[in-house]
Amino acid sequence: MKLKYSIIISFLCSLIFGQNNSFEPGKLWKDTDGVHINAHGGGVIFVDGIYYWYGEFKTEGKGGNTALKGVSCYSSKDLYNWHNEGIVLKVEENLKSEITKGCIMERPKVVFNKKTGKYVMWFHLELKGKGYDAARAGVAMSDSPKGPFTYKKSYRPNKGVWPIGFKEEWKSASADQKNLKSWTPEWLTAIENGMLVRRDFEKGQMSRDMTIYVDDDEKAYLIHSSEENLTLHISELTDDYLDFTDKWTRMSPAGHNEAPAVFKKDGIYYMITSGCTGWDPNEARSFKSKSIWGPWESLGNPCIGKDAELTFHSQSTYIFPVLGKKDQFIFMADRWKPDNPIDGTYIWLPIKINKEKPILNWLDKWNLAYFREN
Ligand code: DGJ
């Protein structure tokens, strides 16, 4: 259906049936049962005219950021009205399971693999009771976008493999400088020169905040905060999207980026990230590159307007194209509520590109007509 007609129909439905016909960033977003949507740190895919939104199912109180249920899914035909499809990847009651109840499952992203016909979910996994030390990437699979997803395994990516462009002299332990004080210029240089890549070479590289990006040639990449969140890694996935090819690179070494979200427009790759301040918001960053492998050019804060220096009190999560086409992109972010995580809200904004720089303007209320009118 043409965008214009779907906008008119959704407007009429909102009058007649009380349906939503707009986004109100930061407000409570009720699903079709009237319950605030519970899909945090999520991602959206578009399959046969239906959008699926996957996210972390949070609960009330201090422990509400741990996974007590699993990954939730909602479906929608118009992006405004969401039907709860339930928990599509469930935590397990078995204490030996890596995804036992009480582990941490963050930022789930689902992609469709055309070769295998499977839906593949990747997420940031932390093992129960180990804080954020495990730093693993978990993967699950399903035959349907509505799940159920079956948990496969988790990885410390790129075990025993050096990244592209890693200098010979950085590979040996003799490059290690002991007792460097954190955040000194010498320490930052040592990080840039791969001190932590070397440390984790045998064990595999850390993987915390992450996203998945599928390129036009169907190659997929895990983009993840690694090296104690100091450096992003871009790791190519195998053709079935379930493993790594051993081809990987580092991006913005010692740049301290979290929350990566990637999209491509007119042949240019763009990335929006945040700094690292736990659940507190900070200033977003943006980058562009002609290749997924870089070099990535830093473009500064993409946000404009009140509270732009705090990403409008939110943190990036994902970027997806409207109707699966590659001309209109929606930026998804989370306004975390660590004291009562279930109350976290969603900041969705249209992305504009101005002279090869992504721009996010704050809007109290907007709908898809914005893309036609701006
Ligand atoms: C910021 C990350 O972006 C979130 O996903 C979460 O891991 C918090 N840190 C935990 O403090």
Automatic annotation (TrEMBL):
Statement: the UniProt record of this protein carries the keyword Repeat: no
Q: Keywords on this record?
A: Glycosidase, Hydrolase
Coiled-coil intervals: none
Domain of life according to the entry:
Bacteria
Question: Which family does the entry's similarity section mention?
Answer: Belongs to the glycosyl hydrolase 43 family.
What PANTHER family does the entry give? GLYCOSYL HYDROLASE 43 FAMILY MEMBER, GLYCOSYL HYDROLASE FAMILY PROTEIN 43
User: Could you identify this protein by its name?
Assistant: Glycosyl hydrolases family 43
Per the UniProt record, the source organism is: Flavobacterium limi
